[in-house]
Request: fold
Amino acid sequence: MGNVHPLRRAYDAAERAIAPRVESVVHSSEFVATARWATDARARVRAGLAQAGEGMWHLVNLPAASDITRLRRQLGALDRDVRHLTLELERLGHGPHERGANHAIDSDSEQLP
Amino acid sequence: MPSIPTPSNSLERVSREIDRNIQRARNGIKLAIGTSRPTFGWTPKDVVWRGGRSELWRYRGPGGPGGTPLLVVFSLVSRSYILDLARGNSFVERLLDAGFDVYLLDWGVPDVRDASNRLDDYADEYIPAAIRRVQELSGASRVDVLGYCFGGVLALLHAAHHPRAPLNSLTVMATPADFQAMGPLVEVFGSGSVDINAVLDENGNVPASIIRRVFRSLTPTYEITKYVNLWERLWSDEYVAAYQGVTRWSAEHIPFPGAAARQTVDMLLRDNAMVTERLVVGGDRVSLSDIRVPFLSVRASRDHIVQAPASSPLIDLVGSADRDELCLEAGHMGLVVGKTAHKTTIPTIIDFLKKRSEASA
Reply:
């Protein structure tokens, strides 16, 4: 305590006073209501823009962003099914990591950028 | 009684302050211009299995392979390099030094292909595939599993749905069981106030920015306090390196697969299924009481993310006869990085694992 800088002591005292109040705001029903309003508003704006864009692109017989999104998600679901099958094949011993395949796929000491 | 300052004490204090101010200036300039960028996840490793974006890494230990295999299952919402922050401050490094053959199941960065991933996929497919691969490479019949944070949830779901899985022991760290005690998450999503589907991005995942905002809302003043802490310890190269690691990790969340997010909200948050015995995994009703392997729960008393009321019920929910709990004076990250981790958490986990390994040998 004796080695603590006076400015640090002052900050800690202020933080002890303010933090509970700020946290109570975050835990309040008003904050939840605001979060819900903001989320709903964002979703409505996104849906409105998507609908407007859809109409325009479909008029000229071109796919809209929503069509591309739907297609990507379908491909994603298909990718999941393929992964399921691959893992099942591995489990049955027919996959790339058959018993006895005792080697690394990728030997690198991965360095983050 | 305060000691009377002597001329030599005062000179020493002044000299130390001058040195520290020089160090502060040097480190401050390095941080400001970005020349000091430590490398994280530095321990050499090999990718020994891939499934989608997920990878199983096998770390290269000082003595080579041959130790007791330990599979670490990481969380779905953050980067795994927090377990391998820097030389001398690495959970993985300590496990390797203790003689373990360490593997880590890293989930990568989910994209549109992972939006349909359910919790069952991780518990019933990815974790068993990783365990099989560990068995193949290590030659061991049973594997110790350690789950961190939400990785612990996945490991629990796996162990509960597969009571005959080849697990030697199960350890979870900072893992919630009572999701109704998860604070703002319950208030926002658990009550149905905000529909989880409304926050999904165009890929169908919960964006990293939303996850970051949720975590920041748990300790709103931390954004300022961290700079105050940094100013105070700016003279310490070790502290600055750890600060950079923890700050970067806290900002680098990853998207959460949409289907898994829906299941988390419906089953874990609203139904509070771990506590109310309403867990459904792979279409089967399961219970944590079906877990019978030796079990250790490590929790942090100052964990602002998984607070004590959320993690403390876990020890009484599992069915293991050999079960233990370790509650430490630390924060969520402090369990795996920093002094408490290296003095207490890691030695206790190593001791627990070694005793169970000896018992099963």
Chain B has one domain: 41-360. The longest strand of chain B covers residues 45-51.
